[in-house]
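User: quick one, fold this
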Amino acid sequence: MSMTVHVIPKDKQWAVKREGGSSARVFSTQKEAIKIARVIAREELPGQLVVHGLDGRIKEYNTYGITPIKDPPGKKSAKIEKAIGKITRDRLNADPIPSRG
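Assistant:
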């Protein structure tokens, strides 16, 4: 199973968070956060790095050990991109689901 690592804005800093994880590492610059996130994504192949801008939209993404994601031909829909960004932010900010039993 592949792992996705996100770089997201957090309180005027930048957080590196594994998708589904409950904690994040925080850095003062986006550049520093990207550097660490890239190392994490490469170490745990297959992996994916997703970098978000200040507005939460996906700014950059890279895959390691899996086939790269390709953009579909044609124009990108701003509404779809905004909705995907919102869903991703909501998932990253949600509390982890407590384990059963």
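User: anything notable?
Assistant: The radius of gyration is 14 Å.
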